[in-house]
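Table S2 (text version). Query chain:
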Amino acid sequence: MQAWTRAGAPEGPPTGPGGDDPRREGELATRTRRKTARPPRFKVVLYNDDYTPMEFVVGILEQVFDKSPAEATQIMLHVHRNGTGIAGIYVLEVAETKVATVHKLAEERGHPLRSGVEPE
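Corresponding structure-token output:
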């Protein structure tokens, strides 16, 4: 039972059947959505050397990084002229796997090609 004030109105918030606030009845219930943060991304960098053939580097870019022949050639020339070049940008686990694959393929062929991971 509700207590009444001198003005004749019940004390506290009005309640309907079942104790629900009738002012809330019919309102649209919304939930705020949390934004999920994107995982940090990392660059896979190829380093120039004087011994690895250019054709091999182009092949690596096509095979491991899914680059087109034209794009792979452009990246290879950038690495050759500037000393380093970005082969791709990935989440950390993928970037590390690609670096390991590059090193494995280069070692199998006897080439000193090196690559690494840097934060974007």
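Notes on Table S2: The chain is about 35% helix and 20% strand. Residues 41-119 form a domain with the Ribosomal Protein L30; Chain: A, fold (CATH 3.30.1390.10).
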